[in-house]
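Chain particulars:
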Amino acid sequence: MMRKYLFAGVVILLFCSSCSSASSPQVCIGKACVSVELADTDALRAQGLMFRESLPGDRGMLFVFEKENLHSFWMKNTRIPLDMIWIGADKRVVSIRERVQPCVTPVCRTYSPGVKALYVLEVNAGFVDTYGIQIGDQVGF
């Protein structure tokens, strides 16, 4: 139980040490910065961006996991195309899936990074291309 509280404390320090109470946490890759919603519990990660009709261009969702692993995603009930950016514990981009389309069939494809990651950033489709994001890029929280 103590480990869970320690993890929560680390997440708060990582994402809120430089933000005021009125602002959202930000993730920056190069010159591209987005305000993010945190998905840092099983329930929030399961919900993700499902059923959203849109996502502002300067927004995203950061999935925070308790340990590095091959975290796979799918687009079930997701209504907007997304770019998925997997980020390692060293805060470097380790994998990218661009322009992933919503799933409109009963069985949805899963997207795996092929390498271990600790975080996944979901943003609007085209974000990676627009900002030239590449594997190995440094990520700032």
